[in-house]
Amino acid sequence: MNNKKPLIIKLLPPLSLAVFVIVATTLVAMHHSYMYATISAVILSFSLSLILYIFLRFRVLNPLSKIKKGAESFAQEEFNQLIPSSDIREFSVLSNLLNQMAKTIQKHDQSRKDFVANVSHELKTPITSIKGYLEMLNSGAVTDKENQQKFLGIVSAQTERLIAIIDDLLALSYLEMSGHEGIEFETTHLYEITDRISRYNSSEATKKKIDIVLETDKKITVQGHPLLLEQMIGNLVENAIKYSGENKTVIITVAKNNNCPQVSVKDSGNGIASQHLDRIFERFYRVDKARSRNAGGTGLGLAIVKHVAQLHKATVSVDSRIGKGSTFTITFSEDI
After folding, report:
1. Domain 110-178 annotated CATH 3.40.50.720
2. For residue range 12-27, what is the model confidence (pLDDT) as tens digits?
3. In this structure, are residues 83 and 56 in contact, taking their beta carbons and an 8 Å threshold?
4. CA-only gyration radius of the chain, Å
5. What is the pTM of this model?
6. Which of 227, 114, 119, 108 is nearest to 169 (CA)?
7. What kind of fold does domain 186-331 have according to CATH?
8. Which one, of 165, 227, 161, lies nearest residue 197 by Cα?
9. Where are the alpha helices (DSSP H) in the chain?
10. pLDDT tens for residues 45-57?
């Protein structure tokens, strides 16, 4: 139980005593009688204390009490009732900050719940598929070799998908937890990274008759982690190939904009509707769920891109229109 007295109760007695002493001393010095000086000092000190108490009670303590009550509700994870604003500027600023904090916590809490639900769903899908096909094979229901090989192929593909999801989750966890700790940056030529990525993805591009075009300034460098930069840009290029139709072109550009290094990946796909653009970097967010899964995506690639960009003090943006394709651009700080 909290038995601490409010600050106003602690302050009033010494303030009243100080007023009493000053008034009494002044009146005695003005040659008034001790009785007159004492009575006058008592009345004046009591009146001033009462006025001060009323003022502080309604102008300071009441707003503070509301802020305290609201903060206690937030501490109990009850965010429905926001703290009312005060006509005192300082209290109003404090209330707004606490309300903003509560909204942020509520948003992160909802994101956490959505993430757990999405992870459960994404992992359950391949696991259920693997379990079902293995049970059919073990039961002897499938006897012909052709179907056995077909089912084993599905199990293998779902296992690879499961491994990819787990690998991406571990990568995200590492990026979120590590910050800059243990990650050493070095001067890195963006051309070398984009050239490697182009060669690594040439096989998949050839299957769909997609041309990968490099438009790069070989002199542009950034301070970064080569493997993470390769993963970030590689994810964008893989997506560009994955979601572009046959006989299309994927363009990788390295240039400078206002002296800031930029890497752009432009595809010739179907494009992304505007209502999805603000959310595509969220974990497991899919514009077209069925199409994304059929293409083999984990739903985590763009989230990894965002985190790697933030780690390098860079920003990632997207420009996309339906039927016109998409352009993802990573912009590094001038002084990185």
Report:
1. no
2. 777 777 777 887 788 7
3. no
4. 33
5. 0.61
6. 119
7. Heat Shock Protein 90 (3.30.565)
8. 227
9. 7-29, 34-56, 62-75, 89-139, 145-178, 190-200, 202-207, 226-242, 289-294, 301-311
10. 777 777 777 776 6
